Amino acid sequence: MIILQNAMEKSNLYQVDEFGVKNYNYGALGLLSFVLFVLINASLGYITYLAEINASGSPVQNYSDAFWLMLMSSTTIGFGDVYPITLAGRAAVFIMFVLGVGILGGVGAVFANKIFGFADTSIKNRELRKQNDAILKQNEIITEKLTKLEEQLANVIKHSTKP
Predict the structure, then answer these.
(1) Which pick of 81, 100, 101, 126 has the fewest CB atoms within 10 Å?
(2) Whole-structure pTM value
(3) Mean pLDDT throughout 93-97?
(4) Domain positions in the chain
(5) What is the CATH number of domain 2-119?
(6) Which parts form a coiled-coil structure per UniProt (predicted)?
């Protein structure tokens, strides 16, 4: 787990600022997600093509049909014009449902957050932490001054009570 965390920090997908807030590189995440989405569609489409091409009565007639099936499965549109009839084809579509919806949903959430700023808590948290640091420093200065005043007051009381 530590190796994965170190790899993520070095990957430039996010950087941790001085307050421990992770600031994500949305461009790199978007590109990585898109490449991953295309690779999964292409590879599962090829697996489906190999499984379905020799199956009698399969609507998958060529690789473009299989790729179309994967695209429709990943977006959960599924027009129904192309569908798998073999177990391997159905398994590939099931995997594409799970992975495709996850990837597209994640990418959609990242871009909606970036465009509309619904949950831009990193900036808010960073500003609050800066304010808290300033308040703590100011409290330390006030505490030092109060301590000196207490000492001076104790000296004044001490000297004023002597006969």
Answers:
(1) 81
(2) 0.62
(3) 93
(4) 2-119, 120-163
(5) 1.10.287.70
(6) 125-159
